[in-house]
Design a protein that fits this description.
The chain is an alpha+beta fold and 496 residues long. Helices cover 33% and strands 25% of the residues. Helix 8 (147-156) runs antiparallel to helix 9 and helix 14 packs antiparallel against helix 15.
Length: 496
């Protein structure tokens, strides 16, 4: 009996020193069930792209899962917890934390106005900028958005720094005097301008110095150029189950903004989640700061997939899932879908990622399954099957909107060569360049570029595949020569 007690004590001590082993002992079936579920989804829908998931508790990363077609077939694969992944709009949670850190250091007052920090933003006096605070910027209640700002920072790029973006804000904006919660990239981007002004550094440098390095997130950056491009998990579009239409990572440093500009890894993100789960006073000095970082600063009333969102903090959606409060901040870009969430009361969180277009709900579906297994819901399989129906519905809907076939590629000809040239816009949007490339045509808009296909829209007979964007356009001819181009509501003039 004595020997058995000693042996049991030895096992308990060994487990207490290994969080992953302790977690496995508490949840012995989780790994098998998670792997079985994701494998069956990959097989049933012939999925090509990547999937990653990690479970994090107060001790850090305790479980991870990687899946793609090679892994499913038992072939060598480079996908793991250290693979660089784009977290898209989860960047807003980092940005909110950065501004709170600066407030703790006395460099920013979240109650100070836009007029105090950025008097250059005037709207020609039509909006009272003294009534818009930094807090409004972070919780999406600043009351306005600017399409050129959003498009340039997310997709197209720009060349004259914040001054160009401020000119865009002043000249092109939409205003909502109610200042109700309206989710947008605009606020966090302007908040980053405030951070740059008070620190004298780029927000990217401040993020690295004040968040990433202190949390030992050594493989996390707001610059694409800090990574080998071929190692970043790409956005993938499939023409059919076995033919890749496009694959690539379409961000550049200039389009990595404070609203959607971070690349990280599951391993690094587990440290970020652990920091939030434990409300650590490391990069944050005062635990009371988490009251705003995690607590409701404004109401919202939206449902996303299975999450009933009722509030927003300085960077997190506050939602309810299966009667539990869950803080979420997700992100999408092209085919990439990113999930990061945690349940404060249960001290557990999930990071999940997929990169094949049409599978945007997959990370959320599998995160929910993991949560329900961890909570030991009695009807976990019924919940999964019900939620899977929503996943399949979106997947099937996307399949009904096929990508252009190869025979729709716009082939070179003397007549089609009339499209070739540079096109300028008088509203300071990035130029469009059309070139003849390898017997077809390339459409370059800002930093994005891709082939031109025929369009089924008679009013917009051309479409450019630009990675995260499929952009239709038309041209106007004068005396047989193209003199202007129209895309969306924008008009471009062909340069001589």
């Amino acid at each position: 009996m004595k020997i058995k007690l000693v042996l049991l004590l030895f096992i308990m001590i060994a487990c207490s020193g290994n969080p992953q082993e302790e977690f496995h002992n508490l949840h012995p079936e989780l790994a098998q069930k998670m792997n079985s579920k994701i494998s069956s989804i990959y097989e049933d829908y012939n999925i090509y792209g990547d999937f990653l998931l990690g479970v994090v508790n107060e001790n850090g990363l305790v479980y991870s899962l990687a899946m793609n077609r090679n892994i499913l077939a038992g072939k060598p694969a480079t996908l793991d917890i250290n693979s660089p992944i784009y977290v898209a709009s989860h960047t807003k949670a980092f940005t909110g934390t950065l501004l709170k850190i600066l407030e703790e250091d006395g460099q920013v007052d979240l109650n100070k106005s836009m007029h105090d920090h950025l008097p250059e933003i005037t709207f020609d006096g039509s909006i009272d900028t003294k009534a818009i605070t930094v807090r409004h910027m972070l919780n999406h209640t600043l009351g306005f958005t600017s399409n050129p700002l959003v498009w340039k920072t997310a997709f197209l790029g720009y060349s004259n720094g914040n001054s160009e973006l401020i000119d865009d804000i002043n000249s092109s904006y939409r205003y909502d005097p109610s200042h109700q919660f309206r989710y947008s990239n605009t606020g966090p981007i302007i908040a980053a301008m405030v951070a740059e002004k008070v620190t004298g550094n780029s927000w990217k440098k401040e993020m690295k110095q004040r968040i990433f390095l202190p949390l030992k997130m050594n493989n996390t950056s707001a610059n694409v150029s800090d990574f080998k491009l071929e190692e970043i998990r790409p956005s993938i579009q499939m023409r059919n189950e076995n033919e890749v239409f496009s694959s690539g990572f379409y961000k550049q440093d200039i389009t990595m903004s404070a609203a959607g500009g971070t690349i990280s890894t599951v391993n690094d993100l587990s440290k970020w989640l652990q920091f939030n789960i434990n409300r650590e006073t490391s990069i944050i000095k005062n635990k009371r700061s988490f009251d705003e970082l995690h607590g409701q600063t404004v109401q919202q009333n939206r449902t996303y997939f299975t999450y009933k969102r009722h509030g927003y903090s300085l960077g997190w959606d506050i939602a309810t899932y299966q009667a539990d409060t869950v803080l979420t901040r997700f992100g999408t870009y092209g085919g990439i879908s990113f999930h990061l969430s945690f349940m404060p009361a249960r001290k557990v969180g999930i990071v999940a990622f997929s990169d094949e277009d049409g599978l945007h709900r997959l990370p959320h579906l599998m995160a929910n399954y993991a949560y329900n297994l961890l909570i030991q819901k009695p009807n976990v399989e019924d919940i999964f099957n019900s939620e899977k129906e929503q996943f399949v519905e979106l997947y099937e809907r996307n399949k009904k909107d096929p990508l252009p076939a190869e025979d729709m590629l716009f082939k070179d000809s003397q007549e089609n060569d009339k499209l070739v040239g540079r096109y300028k816009n008088d509203k300071n949007w990035p130029e469009i360049i059309i070139t003849n490339k390898e017997k077809s045509y390339e459409f370059k808009w800002g930093v994005l570029a891709g082939p031109i296909y025929k369009s089924a829209d008679a009013n917009r007979p051309y479409q450019a595949s630009l990675g995260p964007l499929m952009r239709t356009f038309a041209v106007h001819k004068n005396n047989g020569f193209v003199d202007s181009l129209f895309t969306g509501s924008l008009k471009y003039f062909k340069a001589n």
